Amino acid sequence: MDEVFTLLGLGLVGFGLYDVFRGLLYPSGRGTISFWVLRLVWRLSRSTDHRWGSLAGPIGVVVVIVLWGMLQAFGWALVYYPYVPEGFYYAEGMNPEEYDDFAEALYISLVTLGTLGFGDVVPTGAWLRFVSPVEALIGFALLTATVSWFIQIYPALARRRALAVRLRALQAVGFAERVAHLDRAGASRTVDQLTADVVDVHVALVQNAESYYFREVKEDAALAVFLPYAMEIAARAGESPAEEVRLSAAMLSSAVSDIGQHLRTEFHGSGESTEEVLGAYATDHGYSTGPGRRSGRSRN
């Protein structure tokens, strides 16, 4: 029976580490836990009309981190459980008979995972003395990985917001209506920069899928609101008499279609045309379906 607990514990530890690897280290990977937790939190937020939508992403990430930690803590507790208390030395004045064996195993696991031990309880078994430092190293690595996760997410959000603000500024001056009549070099350069920004945001979304669930507090910085305007710019630029502007327009249209396809496939699953997909993206985030039909709402 002891071996069953040990194997079950090692299985939990291994599954947790694999999920961290899939979610944080594997290129464009998505861990099972992060995928379902973030999706569930997002659905709960959407069911309340995103009343606290800006908190959905951060809450989801925190819940995922807590679950990763719990998998390690309970997994290692199951590994230690068959050897409590015989496999450990207790400080003078402590009576191990006063404590429940599994609660004690969980305590040992938590202080080891948090790199807080050893003090009152020290492993004495040969292999326990080996695996305890391994758990401590895993705990330190998990802490480092979760910090790096936040470091990865927020630059992706910054790029997304920058593109939204840029599109909003272009909309404010009526760029789409004027692009076909502007100087070909200036128009082409502006459209090309938009294409590069859209591609950059697309790549960031592929590498940091969890950033989708971070809803903006204000619509003025919401890409879900302003991304359809990029399609309008591409359509109007495609009417330019200058070939280089039409080529730039085709590239922008392709880039927006690509990110729209990714949004439909990986997230909301709605819409056929690019316009419908982008409208569904805005709706999923609680905004009106397009920059010209803004709801005027700003929720926390």
Detailed description of the structure:
- The chain is elongated.
- It folds into 2 domains: 1-124, no CATH class; 154-285, no CATH class.
- Helix 5 packs across helix 8 and helix 9 (243-268) crosses helix 10.
- The protein is an all-alpha fold and 300 residues long.
- The longest helix has 47 residues, at 126-172.
- It has a two-stranded antiparallel ribbon.
- It has helices at residues 2-25, 32-47, 56-80, 101-113, 126-172, 175-178, 184-207, 223-237, 243-268, 274-284; strands at residues 88-90, 121-123.
- Helices cover 68% and strands 2% of the residues.
Write the layout of secondary structure elements.
Elements lengths: L1 H24 L6 H16 L8 H25 L7 E3 L10 H13 L7 E3 L2 H47 L2 H4 L5 H24 L15 H15 L5 H26 L5 H11 L16
Antiparallel strand pairs: 1-2
Helix pairs in contact: 1-3, 2-3, 3-4, 3-5, 5-7, 5-8, 7-9, 8-9, 8-10, 9-10
Protein name: Potassium channel domain-containing protein
Pfam family, one: Ion_trans_2
Keywords: Membrane, Transmembrane, Transmembrane helix
